[in-house]
């Protein structure tokens, strides 16, 4: 809708002899005064050295002729204040309701985007540290896919590192073989091995040797590794399923190994590999870096490859397989330097084309109420499955007495409320911010929470169920609450585009919340079911229905399932 209004304003600026780009219409900063505003006259005044009021008045005179506007006003120093007619809103509402995309336009520039998110390490259980990556990445993938881009979501398993050598060494100590490996066993074995390696240098050396042997594909090590991978994958995919997260690809760091030779060839062909203290490195800093970027190690002095080698090789792999326009990394923001180095290496060596966009989308930490990274009461890192069941238990307590939910449905409803609260509680924060894990707040049925959005939807379902009207039509808008709701609904496309441009799903979460609040006001102010005028009743039901469909779309993009009743 804002695009449409901006087109009108741009044409008016142009007709008055000004630059059309000045005609950008935004939501009003002062909703009591008007619905929309255009600040182009002030900008134009500077460029053209003419009084802003003069420009604003000329443009306003043209806009006043446009039947979409019910009010065009000019206010000092040069604001153009705008209200649209109810007919204009109704037309837009009706066409959104009729549209399979609910009025949200698809992109005109579809891109292929590989999203690297999740990033758990096999043999270790999935913990809250990986929770944010999974939740944010899933939502970004869904957003970009809905907007018409081709997306490839890759979990990029950490399956090739020291943790595998540690686990293999510890299994040997315990006299266990590949056949004994289960997910429960792995949960115990890794912490044991990790603790032991810190106290026992001989054990630690063995674990390192085993890691190198695995990376050189020694059959005995590969056999155990395969079993670890198989068990871990099954366990991980169950956890991700509970969380409503899925991946197109289950590649791991190990899959990049095959691409290392091609990378080394490209680096050598351009003389980029240099010897530095026995290691082979690429110098990636340039004169604009302050402080300079440290060189990126590709091969360590003992001949081993490291995290950066794998990431460079993975980019080579992705370019060969998907030739993506963009690669997005959803990773803890503390990995920023690592990715900066990796990006420089692939750009210098033309492993990626100049136009390929590599985006590091760092996120902040989920903290406990003490402001430190979230831990369990005994100080450990919480397992994701335990976390979901903790939240589900609390959600169950909240709905135990509800008469709206049949008892048989309560466990499943509690699970959905739990996951929705957890995910919304995360996604509503800008991804770069740290946030506090506050279960009571997340589960509250009021405020900016997942529960509140689910509750709003359940309320609308109940109204629509009772109304028994199949295909209600928009006919009128009565009162400001209805207009505000209409505008909130019609801004969805704008909000999604903004979230995509910023790679920040919190704008989708905000939009859902704004709609839910506008709906609550409308519901409070208007008769719906017992409205006596049939046309008014139908029109309000049409508003309910579009609100429901758009809220469901928002939730789907956030990767959140709704509940029927609550
Ligand atoms: N496995 C890594 C970790 O646990 C995250 C992987 C992120 N993606 C990547 N391409 N490096 O920290």
User: Quick one: biggest sheet?
Assistant: 4 strands, antiparallel
Computed over alpha carbons, the radius of gyration is 28 Å
Quaternary organization? single chain
| Contiguous helical run count | 20
Bound molecules: arginine
**N- to C-terminal distance:** 33 Å
Shape annotation: globular
Structural topology:
Blueprint: H1 2-15, E1 25-27, E2 36-38, H2 40-48, H3 52-64, E3 69-75, E4 79-84, H4 86-98, E5 112-116, H5 128-146, E6 150-154, H6 162-173, H7 183-199, H8 201-215, H9 219-242, H10 260-269, E7 273-276, E8 279-282, E9 296-299, H11 307-322, E10 326-332, H12 336-348, E11 357-363, E12 366-367, H13 384-399, H14 410-427, E13 435-436, H15 439-443, H16 450-467, H17 480-490, H18 492-502, H19 506-525, H20 534-558
Parallel strand pairs: 5-6, 5-10, 10-11, 12-13
Antiparallel strand pairs: 1-2, 2-4, 3-4, 7-8, 8-9
The chain binds arginine.
